[in-house]
Structure formats: structure tokens, C-alpha cells
Amino acid sequence: MFNQVTAAKYAGILVVAALFVVFSWRSTKTLFTLMEMISTSHEDRKGKAIAFLIISLMAVVSIFTVMIQIIFWC
């Protein structure tokens, strides 16, 4: 992208958008599992909660990365 290669710009946005989809899907799935664990007082709740936070943070960072790529595209 630094060398102004158009294919690299499209590939960069495509990869980050795909990562956002995967992170969002995993975050949602982990949240639903965590909600089930809360109602049954499962012993691995803390681990799932930390995993949910990390995956959600990666989804947020991927959104910011797409925004930065689009801003610097012009």
C-alpha cells in the first residue's frame, strides 16, 4: 500500500474486512456460550469472559484499521 499499488489496497481492505467478520462471529458465539455458563454457574466463566473481551477488541481494532485504510486511500 505504501508504494501505491492498487491491488494491495484492495487486498488490504478485503483481508481486514474478512477478519472483522470472523472476529464478530466468534465474539457473538463466545458471548452466547458465556451467557449459558452464567446461568449454570460453570467454573470456566472467567476464561470465557476474557476470551470474549479479547476477541471483541480484535473486532473493534479491525474496524479502525479499515477506517484508516479508507482515509489514507484518497
Summary tags:
0% strand; 74 residues; transmembrane helix; mainly alpha
Q: Order of SSEs, N→C?
A: HH
Instruction: Report the structural category.
Output: mainly alpha
Helix content: over 70%
Give the amount of beta strand, in percent: under 5%
What is the domain total for the residues?
Answer: 1
pLDDT < 50 stretches: none
Task: Provide a count of the helices.
Answer: 2
User: What is the gyration radius calculated from CA atoms?
Assistant: 17 Å
Major sheet summary line:
none
Q: Give the CA-CA distance, first to last residue.
A: 12 Å
Averaged pLDDT:
88
| Overall number of strands | 0
* C-alpha geometry: rod-shaped
Keywords: Membrane, Transmembrane, Transmembrane helix
Transmembrane segments: 6-28, 49-72
Describe the secondary-structure layout:
Layout: H1 6-40, H2 45-73
Helix pairs in contact: 1-2
Keywords: Membrane, Transmembrane, Transmembrane helix
Transmembrane segments: 6-28, 49-72
Outline of this structure?
This protein has helices spanning 6-40, 45-73. The chain is mainly alpha-helical and 74 residues long. Keywords: Membrane, Transmembrane, Transmembrane helix.
